[in-house]
Amino acid sequence: MTKEQALALVAKHGSQKAAALAAGVTRHVIYHAIKRSENRKRGESSQKSLPEKELSARSLQEFRNTFDLETIVPKKINVALKQLGSGWLYEMEFCKSADITSTQISNFRDRYSDHIVCIRDRRRIWVGKKNIAEEMRRMI
After folding, report:
1. What pTM, to 2 d.p., does this model score?
2. Does 1.10.3470 match the CATH number of domain 61-139?
3. Can you give the residue ranges of every domain in the chain?
C-alpha cells in the first residue's frame, strides 16, 4: 500500500482504524504505509538500523584463558600456592581455596609433586614452598 492510498482511505473514513477496517487490513498496515513514506523523505531507511559495533578480535591467549583447562587450572593452582606461602592445607581444602574440583587437581597433581606431601593416612598435603614440603617429608 502506498502513502497516497493510505492517506486517501484515512481522509475518506476519518481515522486509521476505520480506514483499515474498510480496506480489510490492520491499522498497522495503514500506519506503516504513511510512516515509511515519511522516513524516506527524511532520508531514513524503512528498517531501523542497528548501531554499528566495533569488532575487536580476540587473541588465542584470551581464548585459552577462558576455555582451556590446561591453562586455567595451572594458573589457579599457582595462585593458591602463592597464597599459601610457607603454610599448608589438606588437598580438599586446597581445592576449595584454588576454586578447582578434585578431578581437575588429579589431572595436574604430577606437575606439582614438589609441593605435595603424602601423610600416613593416605591424605595429601599441599605446601606453598618446595623447601618446606621437603622438610615436612623428612619429618614423616
Report:
1. 0.59
2. no
3. 3-41, 61-139
